[in-house]
Every structure is written in C-alpha cells, then in structure tokens.
Amino acid sequence: MSKKKYDVIVVGTGPTGIFTVLEILKKEKNLDILMLEKGKDISKRECPMKQNPGMGCVNCDSCSVVSGWGGAGAYSDGKLSLSPKIGGYLEEYIGLKNLKELIQYADQIYLNFGAPERIFGLDTSKIEDTKAKAIKSNLKFIPAKLRHLGTGYTRTVLGNMKEFIKQKGVEIKFKTNVVKFIIDDDKVKGVETKSKDRYYGDYIVTAPGRENAQWLSSLAPQLGINTTVNPVDIGVRVETSSVIAEQLTENLYESKLIYQTPTFDDKVRTFCMSPYGEVVHENNQGLITVNGHSHSDIKTENTNFALLVSKTFTEPFHEPTTYGKNIAKLANLLGGGVIIQRLGDLLDGHRSTPVRIGRGIIEPTLKEATPGDLSLVFPYRHLKGIIEMLEALDNLAPGLYSRDTLLYGVEVKFYSNRIEVNNNLETKINNLYTAGDGAGITRGLMQASVSGIVIARDIISKGN
Questions:
Q1: What is the pLDDT of residue 151?
Q2: 21-24: long-range contacts at Cβ-Cβ below 8 A with a sequence spacing of 24 or more?
Q3: Phi-psi map region of 215: left, alpha, beta (phi>0 left; psi -120 to 50 alpha)
Q4: Among 35, 252, 308, 360, which one is least packed by beta carbons within 10 Å?
C-alpha cells in the first residue's frame, strides 16, 4: 500500500519529470519521491490503431502515443537538439551560458542511458552550402547540432531511465490522473487525483506535457498564476521522396528553415524532419492529428517533415489552443481523421482521390489518411503561406514543389499559454514548480529535460 506523504511529488513522467528525479537522485539519497502518471508504463504503451491497421481511433482514456512514461517523446523521432536557440524559452530564465552548459550535461545523461554516439550537423562545408542556398531563396537557415535516437530506440533509452529510477526506490503510479493541487496559505501541500485520492508532499513538480497543457492553463487563473499567450503553430506534414529531400537531410539530418511569406509576412518554419521515415497519426487532446517518425532500424523510401505557420494572437483573443483545435476538428469532421492531398490537386482546386494519389510517384506511408481537400480546412492565409514556403524550398531541394508531393493535415503544436514562473521555474505558489512543453516553457526533448534539472537543483538548494 502506497504512502500518502512524500518529500517530492512529480506529476507527469515525460522528460521534465524524469530529469527532475534523476538529478535529485544524483544529489540527494534519502528523499521520498512519488511520480504520478496519467498514462501507462512504457512497456504497455501501444496504440490500438497501430495494432489494427485500418481501425479508427477508439478515444482511449489516455492516448498511449502522447501519454505514459516518457511522455510524447517516447513515440517521437527522438531528436535531441544541442543548440540553445532551438526547443524553447529557457534562455530567458537561466541565461545562455547556463543553458549551454546544462544541455551538455543533459546530453551526457542520455549517453549514459544508451543514446547513440553520432551527432548530426557537424559538416561545416554542408552547413555553409545550405546557408548560401537558403539566403538566395529568402530563407533563414539555423544550423543545429542534434543527436538522433530514432523512434523505437527512444523507448529503449527511456526504459533504461525508468528501471534505474525504480531501483533507487522511487514510487511510480501509472493510470493516476491528477486533477488539482492542494494549496494552503499560498503554499502547495499536495495533489488530488480524479479518483479523489490525495497525496501530500513538500515539493510538487507538475510537468503535464502537451496533452494536458490546457488543463494546466485552466488551473492557473484559479491559483492566481498569470499566463502569457504563446504562438500557435498550425500546418501540414509534407511527404516526398528521400532522393529529393536528401539536400535538406544529408549530414544535417534536418534543416531548420524559416520563411517570412511575401503575401502576408507570416512566419513559416520546417519542423521535425524524418528522413526515410513514416507519417503517423496521433490522438492529440481528443483530436486525430499528424506527425512523423524516423526509426533507427526501419527505413522507407520517403522523407517527411512539417511546415508550420506560426501565429501570435493579441487582445482580446487569448485561446490559441482552442483556435488550433477547431482547425484540427474540422479536418476530423471532413476526413474522419487525417486528410491527405497531392500538391497538384490542391493547386488545381480539387480534392484528391485514391486514384489520383495512386498514380503519383510518392507512395503514402500513412495508409489510413483520407484523400480530400485541405483548402476546406485551412484558412486561406495559412494555406497560401505553406504553398509559398514549398516554392522557396524547391530551390534547396529541387523536385519538392512537385505535383506529386503529398500534404497531410492537420499538424498542430499545442504549446500552452506560458505559465508565469521565476528563474528557478517555481510558480508564485511556494514549492509548486512547473516546466516542460505543457507549461509553454519548452518545445522539445532537450530543453524539457534541462528544465527538470533546473527544478531539481532548486529543490535541493532549499533542502540544504
């Protein structure tokens, strides 16, 4: 029978939660730690749609693709960005120098638990060549070193971390959905679950990930915690031949490119390139959205990546997540899930059909996607920006702006309204910490991991 009182309670077992605990265990040997997770253990995270091809989403209580041990990162492409300029806003809290040092520190921890040695993005001649081509196309190229784990092997590394944490005596409870915090006199005392169980702790760390970003944002006003509106990123996943995309991926693994569109001056960016990968769907806050994976041991003939249009809203609107969800909801309504369309069909102004896609040279890797018309889903402004970005990218990867290039929609990144915290990632509620993607502070595996280290060190300093 589990205890009810702990030194530290961590809500969420994504990279922020995991690295919080790993750092505490490294510095403090005698703290009682409880980890609470809404989803399942990593060994039990299986999506019914993956097990039964052609089956639709069954709306599991907790989506195994984005929830459970390792968070959404367990099913992600497993990219560890080693650049402090990519993956979040931590520099604003801890400074550039400290962030660089902690990225190296966290990277070594990943290596200790089995991450591969190879780093992409070290070929300076390739970087300079890509940068020159990008400038000529009015694209901003951001060089970035990264360590790629690969979908599947990411789970191995995260599994190794879990076994280590368990061996150190940390209690982990799965299928435990925390719904609120217990606060007394501006100090956190514990948490309450959906089943009305209460667990008390001196320090509470909440790292709910993207799936529960809206839950955390909704609690903030109740606790008197301010939030700021982050941009919302909405777009498509592009799939093309790996031969065409190798100009963007060879030696670099992925090219980080930003474009200011000529028509509306909107920011469009590449995201999560998956060389020789597959397009997948995931249950994202009750909606079926699209993503991409590259496996460490399975290769396809295609490469996919996201093109995301970033939009920052001003007063009076302050619900960017709701905006993104409604666009994804429209795609689900029209297509029963993810919609796929040939670029040529989109440009011609008619929907794609199985026959039109079948006669193209790019074979879709997401077989369950419904041929349709993305112009019925996206606002004109978004779609125009995506098309203009594809035209610009064709200068770097000739053949990308092809009639047979495939577009899947919708891909949307629900980066929550950013929760107000101090430089140690503590909220105005004493001893209540929050970080990670769900808090709107990070946007990727590495900075989410680093945020856990920052939190752990502050907790340890208070104990001393």
A1: 67
A2: 21/165, 21/170, 21/452, 21/456, 22/109, 22/161, 22/164, 22/165, 22/452, 22/456, 23/452, 23/453, 23/456, 23/457, 23/460, 24/456, 24/459, 24/460
A3: alpha
A4: 360
Residue with tokens 């340890």: 460
pTM of the model: 0.88
Enumerate long-range contacts of 42-49, CB under 8 Å, 24 or more apart. Answer: 42/68, 42/69, 42/70, 42/74, 42/155, 42/158, 42/159, 42/162, 43/159, 44/68, 45/69, 45/70, 45/74, 45/75, 45/155, 47/282, 47/283, 49/281, 49/368
Give the pLDDT of residue 453. Answer: 98
Contact between 385 and 262 under an 8 Å Cβ cutoff? The reply is no
Q: Domains along the chain?
A: 5-116+150-226+418-463 (3.50.50.60), 231-413 (no CATH)
Question: Residue 367, SS3?
Answer: coil
Residue 418 CB neighbours (<10 A): 18
